[in-house]
Amino acid sequence: MPGTTIKHMSSPLLTTSRLLLRPFVLEDAPALFSWASDTEVTRFLRFAAHSDIEESRKVITRWIEESRRPPFFHWAIVRRSDDRTIGSIGLEIQSLHDNRGEAGYCIAKHAWNQGYATESLTAVLDFGLERAGFHRIEACHSVANTASGKVMRKAGMLLEAGPLHHYYRADMLGYQDAMMYVAFSEHF
Length: 188
Ligand SMILES: CC(C)(COP(=O)(O)OP(=O)(O)OC[C@H]1O[C@@H](n2cnc3c(N)ncnc32)[C@H](O)[C@@H]1OP(=O)(O)O)[C@@H](O)C(=O)NCCC(=O)NCCS
What we know:
Blueprint: E1 14-15, E2 19-22, H1 29-36, H2 39-42, H3 53-67, E3 73-79, E4 84-95, E5 100-107, H4 116-131, E6 136-142, H5 146-154, E7 158-170, E8 174-184
Parallel strand pairs: 5-6
Antiparallel strand pairs: 1-2, 2-3, 3-4, 4-5, 6-8, 7-8
């Protein structure tokens, strides 16, 4: 018998040793544009690189609107030492019936390889499984995106399947074979 269900709530503040995870605000548009327009960052992602800051503003406006229709889980990753927005992370609900979601994240290039994605994902998995009522959280990466696989492992996720041949289409690269990782709730 499932012990939890996804709660009717939107992205609360999450604090880690170096980061604050908080909902996006329109003032984050220049920061979002800085990485969303960087094709090295968007290479394996499912959206086209932003060509205009107005696109970044529209995306944030959509996130703000979606946050008014909980459950919705999406955060700006803010470095506490200088209050700089350095990335984004979210838990997309895949099935409310099964309490299943998928984690996705990205970090601005200037902040890569300092453990920020791992720190963010660890906090979001903990929140999702311990507080928000998810039973199962998946994360997928292109087989070529080995850094993201490392992040998933370092955050405690288990490799469940892959390479999956049909799973995922990156905007720039087309269909990508993907590895699927998973984290489970203890509450089942
Ligand atoms: C993948 C990504 C989120 C990692 O963010 P990050 O903050 O640099 O991640 P961390 O610092 O927590 O960990 C990265 C790990 O990957 C390793 N790594 C970095 N580049 C690598 C590469 N090309 N090949 C293999 N490992 C690599 C790092 O050494 C580190 O491992 P370590 O701690 O054992 O040294 C970031 O590169 C990114 O935003 N990329 C573009 C968007 C993206 O791919 N998102 C994920 C989609 S599935």
